[in-house]
Amino acid sequence: MSLEPEDGNVIGLDDDEFQLDVTVDENDDGDTEIEVGCYQDSDFDDEYDTGTIDDSGDNDEDDRTFTCDIDVSEYDGGDTIYIGLADQAGNRYSDDNDEITASYEIDTRSPVVQSLEFASTDVEDPTFSSDFDVSVEVNDDTESTSRVEYYFDSSTDDGDGTALEWDGDGDYTVDTSDLDGGSQTLYLRARDSVDDDDGDAFHGYSDAETLDFGFDSDASRSISLRTPDNITVTAGESGTLDVTAANAGGVFISEFNISVSGFFSAQETVEQLRSGAEDEVSFEFDTSESDLGSASATLEADGFDASKEIAIDVEPNQEQRSSVESKLERYSNELEYLRSNYTELKSKVSGARESNLTSRFTEYESLVQDTRSAVESDNYAEAQEILSDAQPRLETSQNSISDTQSFVKSRNQRNTIIMAAVGLLAVVGAGVGGFIYSERYGLDIKQALDSDIPTTSVDGLKSRVKTIFTDEEDADEFEWSGFED
């Protein structure tokens, strides 16, 4: 036995009933009449339709087929229809000892395009420069939609649009390669999968849904970024970088990322930006106490020629400010102590020694003055940076002063001894004492005794004494300060 339509099919209807053809197999059992019935239950009580067919074994298929008229008003889609067959004696047939049954889904209307939207935006009337995606939702009671088709000319006949197989997801890409520029309308409709006897869609196509948009294949894609030129934040606290992204091109931009690199790294996504529209994003970043000073962050719109450099100034917090002020006070006090020693020593040395002493002192003095100026300008970050070199500069100046003090002290002791030697020259002229002094302090007593230089004046005495020294530098030093008193 066979059924038409086959069990499980979707049946398209224009009216209140559908027909189920029951065809029995040809056989030689001698039965000439078989009672056929379609029922609502397995007890064969509530019948849809019954009749008889001739199954004598020599009749064609039409003679062995009975058509049951199923009343749709009494049939709910998916219900079971029980097929009853009985011979002339009233014996029931079965299909391999099982009940003969069938069930069907009833399709009484066309599918409906429930919604049609741009997949990338909810902006009205966007402008595209290339293919774009749409999302489609179709309402079909029997889920019998076979395909959708789209087109741009409202006069397009059913079946003449761009056909897309319906996959249930409803996500499609619209081909714009044949479009002219300007305002456009996208039309989309769905097709029924249930065919009639002629092979056409039983209920045809749904009404079309539409989307308006603009198209310009030559339009540029451009993004501009606006931010403050610099951001000031206190060390240890969080900062915020606010960015305004503007669509400076002529087409809709569905999505792009804004990235930050440099002082900190982050990324935010901007979506659905039509031509001329703007959107704002904010980036939060943290700082530590070691981030003092000026840094920079680079802002970029990925995929576009749009970037900007932002200066980030991290200022000391209150604790760091107090620390800078305390250090400045200490180093200022050290400067005044050094100044008193430097002033005293500067007049007692000359040449390279005086130049070295002055250089070391003024380097430290300039450092303290620069620090004070930075603090007075409220630039504590610069002040802290300057102070990082304060201790080495202080120690260098201290060492220079200490070395000079030692030199002056040693020189004074030496000059005292030299003056004693000069006294010996004047009193005894020569002798053992002169010999001892000359050996210990590098003096050439014999040269002084043999000299023709007169000693009747201070200048003469100074000239005579200079001949004593075997070291030229010692002679210059003695000539410069040995007779100061």
How would you describe the overall organization of this protein?
It is built from eight helices and 25 strands. The protein is of the alpha+beta class. It has a five-stranded mixed sheet with strand order 11-17-16-13-14, with no helix packed on it. A hairpin with a 7-residue loop joins β4 and β5. α1 runs parallel beside α4, α2 packs antiparallel against α4 and α7 runs antiparallel to α8. The chain is rod-shaped.
Find the structural class using helix and strand composition. Answer: alpha+beta
Number of strand elements:
25
The radius of gyration computed from the alpha-carbon positions, rounded to a whole number of angstroms, is 55 Å
Q: How many separate helices?
A: 8
**Helix content bin:** 25-40%
Strand order of the largest sheet: 11-17-16-13-14
User: Largest sheet, described in full?
Assistant: 5 strands, mixed
Overall morphology: rod-shaped
User: Separation of termini?
Assistant: 146 Å
Keywords:
5-stranded mixed β-sheet, Immunoglobulin-like, alpha+beta, 485 residues, 25 strands
SSE topology sketch:
Layout: E1 2-4, E2 10-12, E3 17-23, E4 34-39, E5 47-53, E6 65-71, E7 80-86, E8 100-103, E9 105-107, E10 112-118, E11 127-128, E12 132-139, E13 145-151, E14 162-165, E15 171-174, E16 182-192, E17 209-215, E18 223-226, E19 230-234, E20 238-247, E21 253-262, E22 266-273, E23 278-286, E24 293-301, E25 307-315, H1 318-346, H2 351-376, H3 380-387, H4 390-427, H5 432-441, H6 445-450, H7 458-466, H8 472-481
Parallel strand pairs: 2-9, 11-17, 19-25
Antiparallel strand pairs: 1-3, 3-6, 4-5, 4-7, 7-8, 10-12, 12-15, 13-14, 13-16, 16-17, 18-20, 20-23, 21-22, 21-24, 24-25
